[in-house]
Amino acid sequence: MSDREKNGKIGNIDYFIVMPELPEVETIRRGLEKTILNKKIAGVEVKNKKAIRGGADNFVRTLKNNSIKKVGRVGKLLMFELADGNYMFAHMKMTGQLIYRFDHKVFAGGHNLPHFTETDLPTKYSRVIWSFNDGSKLYFNDMRKFGYLQIVDREKKEKTASAYGIEPLTKNFTVDNLKKVLAERKAPVKAVLINQQLVSGIGNIYADEICFEAKIKPDRPAGKLTEEEIKILHKSANKIIEKAIKYGGTTFKDYVNAHGAKGNFVEYLKVYKREKQKCLRCKKGIISVKRVAGRGTRFCPVCQK
DNA sequence: CGGAGTGTTAGTCG
DNA sequence: CCGACTAACACTCC
Questions:
Q1: Quick check: A289 CB within 7 A of strand C?
Q2: Which of these, A123, A124, A121, A127, lies nearest to A148 by C-alpha position?
Q3: Distance of A82 CA from C7 C1′ (whole Å)
């Protein structure tokens, strides 16, 4: 058992309260691409109309007898391409989960509180339920009701996607482009990293992990980073996001039958939830926590400059 | 028991 | 334009 603060347990599995960021959403995207493509949507039950942008009636009407051709993603936003040419957006914000269930097999991703168990779906947090013609179901759970689903046409989808900033591991995420978004900004480097219009997909956990990896204090003014530091920050962002995706994100859970959670990036976090503990890198600093860009921010006061 | 904290995004305000 | 702040909500922590 790790010495990190625990938030709870599911069976024998410890969990931490963390929110879906790019690696978590990408993990869900990959999982759903293997499970729900081309299945006819037999019905959609909207249990909470607030979860739907643009009207629940239109949402249900569009999806019924439709199917999903492709699951795309921009930043933390999932974009399902439908057979009729429209798109369905799904944003999980802080506490959303997408749970796909077929008999006793459950594939789930998103916020990692145990808002459901393998057998009690739907739960009181299930906001929308899709039923497929093979009997399988997809649940959109969201405790705090910040997340949303929305049907949009192709034009709106393109427009939304183009408003997002450069994304780690994609071809636009170059040192030069990162330099441009940091340039002349007085805001902390962390504020730039979590600003979806500038850099997409990074949230609170990975912003801290990336700054730690780069040995840069998250509250440093973005425009004051040196050329060398920008190069290191660029490399660190790619490295952390790539590794997090490799381990299925921090919040991801993959249930086969009753138990058996798979790889979890929680074990690889270096600063998140480690305040007051000794720095794992320099072994000298004690991890500090302060508010930066309106968020709880962890860093090593000794080896991050 | 109750107030503070949790952290995403849209919207407001200076 | 830029950046700081807040509401939306539900639950845990102290």
A1: no
A2: A127
A3: 33
Instruction: Give per-residue pLDDT as tens, A194-203.
Output: 999 999 999 9
What pTM value is reported for the model?
0.92
DSSP H helices in A82-226: 154-162, 175-182, 189-194, 204-213
Residues of A known to be catalytic: 20-21, 76, 295
- Indicate if CB(A290) is under 7 A from strand C: no
For strand B, give the nucleotides within 7 A of a protein CB. 5-10
Which nucleotide minimizes the distance between its C1' and the CA of A94? B8
Between the alpha carbon of residue A204 and those of residues A57, A98, A243, the distances in Å are 35, 21, 16
From A179, A264, A192, select the one nearest A226 (Cα to Cα): A179
Identify nearest nucleotide to residue A198 by CA to C1′ distance.
C2
Tens digits of per-residue pLDDT, A133-186? 999 999 999 999 999 999 999 999 999 999 999 999 999 999 999 999 999 999
| A124, A174, A189, A216, A304 from A184: Cα distances, Å | 47, 18, 11, 17, 21
- Cβ of residue A64 lies below 7 Å from strand C: no
- Please report the domains of chain A, with CATH numbers, ordered by start residue: 5-162 (3.20.190.10), 175-299 (1.10.8.50)
